[in-house]
Amino acid sequence: MTSLIKGNASAADRGANLLINEVVGVPGGIGEPARQARAAAYDNFLRGLLPPRDGVALIAVGGLGRRQCAPYGDLDLVLLHAGVPGTDELAASVWYPIWDAGLRLDHSVRTVSEALSVAQDDVKVALGLLDARLVAGDPVLAEALVSTAADHWRRTAVRQLVGLREVTTARWQAHGELAFLLEGDLKEAAGGLRDVGLLRAISAAGITDALRPAVRAAHLRLLDTRDALHQQVGRRVDRLVAQERDGVAALLALDDRDVLLRRVAGDARTVSHALDDAFRAADRLRSGRSRGGNGRPVRRPVARDVVEHDGELVLARTAIGARPDPSLSLRVAAAAAATRLPIARATCEWLAAYCPPLPAPWPAEARAALTTLLGAGPGLVPAWETCDRYGLVDGWLPEWTRLRSLPQHNPVHRYTLDRHLVQTAHEASHHARDVERPDLLLLGALLHDIGKGLPGDHSTVGVPVAEAVATRIGLPAAEVELIGRLVRLHLLLPDVATRRDLSDPVTIASVAEAVGDTGTLDLLHALVRADAAATGPAAWSDWKGRLVAELVARVRTALDTGVLPEPPAPDPALLDGPLPVVHLTGDRVAVAAADRRGLLATVAGCLALHRLEVISADASVVDGRALVECRVQPRYGLPADPVPLRADLRRAVGGDVSVTQRLRGRALAARGGGAAPRVVWHREAATDAVLLELRAADAAGLLYRVACALDEAGALVRAARISTLGGDVVDAFYLVGGWPDDATRARLEAAVLAAV
C-alpha cells in the first residue's frame, strides 16, 4: 500500500538485527517455517499496539499479509476504520512504536469505501488487497474489506490485467530478466517475486490455475534465496550482487555460487513461463476466438498431427489415439516456432509423459523438424523455452542438462549458456541464404559453445561433444566432421581479425589452411556474426565487422586463386608535402614525420590524451618518412575535437616536450588495478616480425605506455592490434626482426609488464 510517511530506513538498517530480536522478538532463519514464525511474532507484537475498539481493524498486506516475512522486510499495514472519531491519534499510537522498534513501515488509514475506491483506480493497490489479512481489531470490518476486494477483483481482473501488463512490461524493461542477470533483483526483475504475486492474482480471479506445483516450488526457493540474502547482508536488499553470492550459497547449503545462479535462473524461467501462459489465458477470455456453429473454438490443422485450438497448438485426436511417433515432440515444436503460436500446457504435459525417446540415429523426419525449429526465426526461442520447461529438450539432447542455466561470467554475455546457444541459432537464421548448407549453420550455431563448463578450451573440448550429437542426429561422417570444425574454429575469424595484421601474407595463409574451403569460410563468417549478435552489443561493432569481412575477403581470394593478396600500399598523401603530415578522416588518424623511433608511442599517447581508443595501428618507414596509421574510436562515446587533436599531434610528433609531459602525466594517472597481466609470444605468426601478445586489464593510455616501454627497450614495433572484450584487452605487437633469444625476450617481457 502507498504510504505518506516512512520510518528512518538507514537507522532501521543499522539497528534492525538488535531491535527486531529484542523489542519484537522476531526470529531469523531461512525457509517457510522461519517465515511463518516471523509473521506470528509480528502479529503478536502488533496486537499489543491496537487497543480493543469497535469499528477499527489493523490489516496486514504484502509479505506479512501472506505470512511470508523476509528477515528484514517491510511491514505493510492498513488501519481500517468505520468513521470512528480519534482515528489519527489511534494511528499515531500504532505507527510510532513500530518505528521505535526499528522496523520499516508502509502504512495508510482508510475506511472500507476509501480503500476500495483507491483499489479501483490503482491496480497495484487492488493486488495488495488480495493479500489482506486481519491482525487485530474488528473481524467483521476486516471481512467486509477482504471479501469485497476479492469479489471486485474477480469481476474486473480480465479488464484490469491490460493496464497491469503494461506496468509489468515497463518494470521488466527497467530491471531485466532475472534468469539471465549475474546481479538480478530477486523481487522486481522478470521472473522474480513480484511476478509470482501476479500469478497469485490471476489464479484468484479464476482465469487459470497459474500456481502449478512447479511454480509453487520455484516461489519457495526464491523466497529462501531472498531470506539468505537478507541474513548474509544484515539488512533489506533484493539484488543478488556478486560479492554476496558465496555467502548466500553457503546459507542455502549449495555447493557454490554457480549452483546458486543456476537455481535462481531456473526458478525465474519457470515463473516467467507461467506468467506468459497466464496472460495468454486472460487475453483469450477478453478477446475471444473464432467460434464454430456449436459455439466451440474452431480447430485448424497447421501441420501433421498438430492443430490450432483457441489460439494454442494441440495434438490432433488421431495423434493421441495412435502409438506416438518419436519425432512428434520435435514436430510440434517446429510447428509452434513456424506459426509463432504457443503450445498448450496439456499438450506439453502429454508429450513429456507419452512421447517415446528418439532412436539413434534419428529418423529423417526428426532431423527435418529440428532444422525447421532452428530456422524458424523469432518463433524459435519461445517454442524452445516451452519445450525446455517440460523436459522435452532433454529427450532430444541429453547434453542440455549440463548447459541449462549455466552462467557466463563475462559481462559482455547477456544470456546464460543454454539461452545463448538458442539465440545464436535464431540469429544464424538471418544468414541462411549466405551459405550453401544452412542446416549445418543452424546446428553449428546451436552447438558452437557446447564445450563451455568442461575443463579446458571450450573450442577444443566441445568438438567431440558436438560430433557425438551430430552423429546421434544422423548426419553422415563428412558433415559430422564439418560440425566439429565449426565448433573448433568458431572464434578463429574474430580473433585473427582483431589481433593480427591482415596485410601480412602469413596471417592469410594460416587462416586459409585452417578453414580449408570457401564453403566452410562462409559458414564461419555467418556463425561469427550470429554468435556476436546473440552475445550482446559489446561483442560487436562496425569496425570489428569490417575487419572480419576484410579477413574473409582476403582468405577467399587465397582459397579461390591460390595466390596471397598483396598488402595495401601506404596512403600517397603521407608521402608528399612538408613534414609533419597529419590527416584526420572519420575513424582514421594518419601521421607522417621525419624517420625516428618512438613515433607510434607518441601518436598513441596523444590519442589517449584526447580520450580516443586505438583499435589498430601500423608503423612503417617509406622513403625516409616514418608513417603511422591508426583506427580509433571514442573511449566514452563522444568524438574528439579535431582542431586541438590535430594541433597536439603536430606538436607531439615534432618533439614538443610540453605535450610529452602531459602524455606521461595522464598515463601515470590512468594506471589502475585489474587482472594480473600476461605476455605470450608467437614465433611464426608474421612474415618479417615476431608477435608479442599482451593480455591485461583495459586502461586508458595502455597502448602508449607499452609502446614507450618497447621503444625504450630497443624493440621496433611495425604494427599493433588491440582487441577489447569487456574489461580485458589482448594487444598484439609486431616486433621487427627474428626470434629474440631468451634473455632479450625476458627483458622485453619485463618492460611490458612493468608498463602495465
Flag low-confidence runs: 1-21, 668-673
User: How much helix, percentage-wise, in residues?
Assistant: 40-55%
Shape: globular
Number of helices, where a helix is a run of at least 4 consecutive DSSP H or I residues: 31
Query: What strand line-up does the widest sheet have?
Result: 8-9-11-10-14-15-13-12
Q: Any overview of this molecule?
A:
The strands form three sheets. This protein has an eight-stranded antiparallel β-sheet with strand order 8-9-11-10-14-15-13-12, sandwiched between helices. The chain starts with 8 loop residues before the first helix and ends with a helix. α5 (112-121) crosses α6 (123-129), α13 runs parallel beside α15 (364-374) and α30 packs antiparallel against α31 (742-755). The chain has 31 helices and 15 strands. The protein is of the alpha+beta class and 756 residues long. α4 links the parallel β2 (75-81) and β3 (105-111). InterPro entries: ACT-like_dom_sf, ACT_dom, HD/PDEase_dom, HD_domain, NT_sf, UTase/UR. Its EC number is 2.7.7.59. Keywords: Hydrolase, Magnesium, Multifunctional enzyme, Nucleotidyltransferase, Repeat, Transferase.
